[in-house]
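MODEL INPUT / OUTPUT PAIR
PAIR INDEX: 1
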Amino acid sequence: NPGTYVVREDLLTAKGCQNSFTDTVRVYRTPTPLILGPAEICINNSAQFNASTVVPDTLTNWRWTYGNGSTSTAPSILNRFTVAGQESILLTASNFLGCSKDTSSLITIWPLPVITNVPEIVIPVGSSTVLPFSYTSNVSTWAWTPPTSLSCIDCPVPVASPRFTTNYKVAVVDSNGCQATSS
């Protein structure tokens, strides 16, 4: 166990001579690293990851390996994720004696929701039409702007009956918290 121990050796020779030697032995804990940060993130977003240890120690050295072979010795890193899928982050914690342990974290990078629409439609004055938008299946919220002449502002396909040329914009959020916009 880590701690400070006093060790004593007593010597006795064959002729009956005695002597003793006392020394202090310090046993240091090998740091057990922890990665603090999100387990999931949306593509093209950045996330901060902080290094910690199970038992705090101010004499810990860090080594991160992440994102296409990037490395850092800082206690925290900021990484931008540009490819959907999974990425592993590796953290090594070592003490001043060189004793070390590794840990890793698998980060899920979600793709953005996809919005498909016709970029421009013509609606004769006095008539209305359903805006031709479709979305990936996991979109959970919609926010339309401006609300003028729309049947709803929080539905996937509102009916529009504008009296003037209007550029409608929709912002969506999917079940993973990822956002996209289109107009």
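PAIR INDEX: 2
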Amino acid sequence: NFSINSREFVGMIALEDPPREEVPLAIAHCHEAGIRVIMVTGDHPLTARSIASQINIITEADGGKNAPIWDVTQPDEIRRNPLKSGVIVSGSDLSDLNDEDWEYILSRNGIVFSRTLPTQKQDIVAKLQLRDEVVAVTGDGVNDSPALKKADVGIAMGSGSDIAKEAADLILMDDNFASIVLGIEEGRLIFSN
């Protein structure tokens, strides 16, 4: 878009925002307890897939860093391959999904929704609830508020926006996903007793 003849390359910088180190173990505990963890993010599909594979939302068995990215232009038999257990779906494709697509996606083991808008987050929660699933949503921003409100259990981060906190049922004071797992363990213990 512009001439680079009079420019000299000085350097490049890369930023990384790695997941907290306790998150992969917390997600493993969720899986052991029969809890599915689905990632819904505004990140680019490739970034979302990378993070999801680092924290085991998408395991190596699900394709890991090579898990398929949903492509609406592919034929049904390729797009809905029963041998693939992981999938990354971009928010821009959600409006094109039919009932069979939703059924396929929500039946996968590793699921990531990327580039999602607030209303799309709410729609994802509604689709899960139609399957009689109890849905808990975590979030911290204004954009998460519709999904927090729609969820069976909305969990806002303590450092999050006031609107997210008002929409949620619980506020996680330490902003640590692993604390949710500890809370579930305590709750199940109380229920058992």
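PAIR 2 NOTE: The longest helix spans residues 177-192.
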